[in-house]
Structures are given as C-alpha cells and as structure tokens.
Amino acid sequence: MVAIRSTALLVISGVLLGTTACTAPVELENSSTLVGPVWHLQTLQRQGGEPLVIESPENYTVEFSETGQVAVRADCNRAIGEFTEVTGGVEITLGATTLAACPPGSLGQEFIDTLNQVSFYFFKDQDLVMDLPMNGGSMEFSAVAPTPQLVGTVWQLQDIQFSDGTLAAANPPESYTVEFLADGALVVQADCNRGRGQFTTDQAQGLTVSNLATTRAACPPGSLSNEFLRALQDAATYSFQDGQLFIKPSGDTGTLRLTAKPGNS
C-alpha cells in the first residue's frame, strides 16, 4: 500500500443509508476526516487481486455525519446506522440493509461484505483508503461535496427567467421561499402571501405541485408574488446546478432559480 499519513481502527458491524447523486469527485478543504464528504467508491481490491475500477462510484457511497449517523448506498440497497469515534478509530452500529434485488453485475453485496471486514483507514492525498485485515483487500474512495436535497431545505427565490428572455429578480429573496417537507407537503411564502400545498416527485426529477392554496393579499407594486405562485403551480421538473435549485415549468410561467436560505439548509 502507499505510505500512511494517518491510520485509525475502523470497526463495522452490520450494514449501512445514503442519498447521493451522480457527481464527479471534487477537491474539498479539510477532507482528511471521515465526517463531511460523501465518500464515493473508486476502486475495490480483493485479496491478491488487482484493483477493480468502479464504473458508477455514485452507486457505492459512505457518509459519516456530525450527528453520529453513518450511511451507505450499496447500489440498489441502503441502510443507516450510528458511529462513535474512539481513540484510534471508529465504532459503528448499523441496522439491516434493504433487500432489493440489484441487477446482474452489481457489487452491492460485496461492498457491504467488504465494509463489514474493514479494520483500518487512512488518507492518501484527498482520498480515503479502507483496508481489510491480513492484506485481505482494500477500498479507495474520493470525497464528493454533499448533494443538495429538495426536501429538508428552505429555498429562497433569486430570480424568474421567462421564455422571452426576461429575467425578474426577487427583491428581497427572503420574501419568496418554498420548503418541501418529508410528508409531501409544500409551504410557500410569496411576498405578502402565504400558501400550502402538496408535491410529488419521480426518478426522472419530475415535480408536480397540487392543491396549492394561498392567501390573496394585494402585494405592493413590483411584487413577484403572482408570478412565483404560478410558476410553482406549473412546475414540471427540478434540477441542481452549483448548489442551486432550478424549477422548470410545463408552460410559459418562467423558470425559478433558488438557493438554500442561510441557516436553514
């Protein structure tokens, strides 16, 4: 193996849940720590074999959070557990994995089995390396910035871009917010109006907003209240770019560009 910068004991029992998206590895400040990044598997080396390059690193991830949770995505399966840092290492207690049948060629079960045997970890430049005992193999991960999540973040409007190229800036952005809740509810502030509705998403990042009921106050001149509400009601898809949320409509009501509200993401 490569020269060790720092070494620690890693004890894993059970299996791990992660929510990641397909994202290229990035160089992160202070990434020589387990907590913070989403670790995407780059190579898996079996005992006595050559490193196997992972074709879809985003399907095999490990994430350690500041709240003491640890999560894994093992292809089509997930699990979640807890970890506690101890002198020289980490102790992890994990729940049972989901039992979806992954497609042929999946490394999901092997990934889980390998994690269960990990003994040591160290950092090689920006990468995390996990070793098995008795030269039994190793895994190398790259640090990836956490992916923004639609649910659990208060999003504030920056601007609305209409199909004719017109750009209407929200002033101030904190007066136009939307929050997607875990129970499928949606909470909106549209300047001097408030609203609540429901939303659904699909695997293709489709977004549908329904039953959006709002107050009907007359906001001051220049308000984007009506345009904001119409664009939400007409939502068709959502996507992330550079940490920003874009909601595109099915009609001509304008594309919303939103960012996470400071202190509420």
Summed up:
With 265 residues, this protein is mainly beta.
Topology:
Elements: E1 8-13, E2 38-46, E3 52-53, E4 60-64, E5 69-74, E6 77-86, E7 89-94, H1 108-117, E8 120-124, E9 127-131, E10 137-144, E11 154-161, E12 167-169, E13 176-180, E14 185-190, E15 193-201, E16 207-214, H2 225-233, E17 235-241, E18 244-249, E19 255-260
Structure, explained:
It is a single chain. The chain is elongated and about 70 Å long. It contains 2 helices and 19 strands. The N terminus is likely disordered. It is mainly beta and 265 residues long. Helices cover 7% and strands 45% of the residues. The strands form 2 sheets. A 9-stranded mixed β-barrel has the order 1-7-6-5-4-2-10-9-8. Strands 11, 12, 13, 14, 15, 16, 17, 18 and 19 form a 9-stranded antiparallel sheet that branches.
Strand-residue fraction?
over 45%
CATH topology of the largest domain: Lipocalin
- The strand count comes to 19
Q: Report the order of strands and helices.
A: EEEEEEEHEEEEEEEEEHEEE
**Largest sheet composition:** 9 strands, mixed, barrel
List keywords for this structure.
265 residues, mainly beta, Lipocalin, nine-stranded mixed beta barrel, nine-stranded antiparallel sheet, 7% helix
